[in-house]
Amino acid sequence: MKLIKKWWRWFVNFWKGIWAIVKSMGSWKGVTSLIIVWLILSGIGVAIVGFIIQNTWLVGVGLGIFAFWAGPGTPLMLVVVAIAMVVQRYIFQDRSVSVANIKAKFKEAFKKD
Fold first, then answer.
1. Is the pLDDT of residue 112 over 70?
2. Are 44 and 70 in contact (CB under 8 A)?
3. Where residue 10 falls among pLDDT bands split at 50, 70, 90?
4. Cα angle at 75 between 15 and 101, to 5 degrees?
5. Element (H, E) at 111
6. pLDDT of residue 31
7. What is the pLDDT of residues 13-38, one digit of tens each?
8. Are the beta carbons of 85 and 97 closer than 8 angstroms?
């Protein structure tokens, strides 16, 4: 039972760290990069383009990609946040994003209560 509680605590703290990173991306550069990367990776962007140009094949591909990511055990949000931070740092030239900042957020989430 202790192992389950320990694992659960780690799981909750991990997602708290991810949430702290997402909150720290609160500038327009961070929000824009997060939305763009999510639209591209989740397949929703492909489905939207398919609806706009009325191409059922694109809609099907987009929804298929989304169905894959909706499955259990797929790390969509982790991948999206990581790539969004890279886009924010190198495409939008936001110097506030660094590996040290990310580590600090995770240390804050995993500190002992």
1. no
2. no
3. confident
4. 50
5. none
6. 80
7. 777 777 777 777 777 777 888 888 88
8. yes
Per-domain residue ranges of the chain: 2-109
CA distance 25 to 97: 8
State the number of CA atoms in the 13 A half-sphere of 111 facing the CB: 7
In Å, how far are 29, 54, 105 from 26, measured between CA atoms? 8, 34, 14
Between CA 48 and CA 54, with CA 53 as vertex, the angle to 5 degrees is: 90
pLDDT digits (tens, 9 = 90+) for 57-97: 999 999 999 999 888 878 887 788 788 888 888 888 877 77
How far is residue 93's CA from residue 103's CA, in Å, rounded to a whole number? 20
* Cα 58–Cα 79–Cα 48 angle in degrees, nearest 5: 20
What is the residue whose two structure tokens read 């939305």? 35
DSSP result, 47-112? HHHHHHTT-HHHHHHHHHHHHHHHSTT--HHHHHHHHHHHIIIIIS--TT--HHHHHHHHHHHTS-
